[in-house]
Specification:
The chain has five helices and nine strands. By secondary structure, it is an alpha+beta fold.
Length: 201
């Protein structure tokens, strides 16, 4: 990547109001997630959740998720999406987008933005490992699904359960935002690493 392009991405990551973030996502696009447990591919559909699909698309193309951690994994779902660098994580902590109507169901393999209430979606993504359609009524709007590598999602390390990154609603993620990878790697060394998230052209 050319130095000018890198500088543009870095500037955008430090400014959620930059024009960079206004680019409309394709109607359908795929993202390859490389982790220490293997790779899986997400397919997003803009007609399922337009605002969410646009936000996810732009975060991926900015490299937001690269070198972060899959900090929350249970028997029901996995969650990622807090930047590994604290200076970036803090900027995006409250950079919310409006809700999308729920047009699809939270069934196994579907993914959506985590949230704490209306219009609070920022950068955190969860993937359903089981049928979680009970969440539909609460406004969690899936924007796509895993199309390759669901077996990788299933084996992401879940030994820490809620202790390593749970508590979004209860405000217990402060150290993830303040200390990033350094904290997680020291306190929860078995967490799988999200090495890169790449748009598949």
């Amino acid at each position: 990547m050319r130095p000018a392009a890198i500088a543009l991405l870095l500037a955008a990551l430090h400014d959620p109001s930059a024009p960079f973030w206004n680019e409309r996502a394709p109607s359908v696009y795929r993202v390859r997630i490389q982790t220490t447990a293997g790779a899986f591919t997400l397919e997003a559909h803009r007609d399922w959740a337009p605002k969410g699909a646009d936000r996810f698309y732009n975060l991926v193309r900015a490299g937001f998720y690269d070198d972060s951690r899959v900090y929350r994994a249970t028997s029901r779902f996995v969650q990622f999406g807090i930047a590994g660098q604290p200076e970036i994580a803090k900027i995006w902590r409250n950079a919310a987008i409006p809700d999308d109507p729920v047009r699809q169901s939270n069934t196994r393999g579907r993914f959506a933005f985590a949230m704490t209430g209306p219009d609070t979606r920022t950068t955190q993504i969860y993937i359903c490992k089981v049928d979680m359609s009970a969440q539909d009524k609460d406004g969690f709007a899936p924007l796509g699904e895993v199309v390759q590598g669901m077996d990788v999602v299933d084996r992401l390390y879940e030994g820490y359960a809620e202790t390593s990154g749970g508590g979004m609603r209860a405000g217990r993620q402060a150290r993830l935002f303040e200390e990033g990878n350094a904290y997680l790697d020291q306190a929860f060394p078995k967490l799988d690493r999200l090495q890169s998230a790449t748009l598949i052209r």
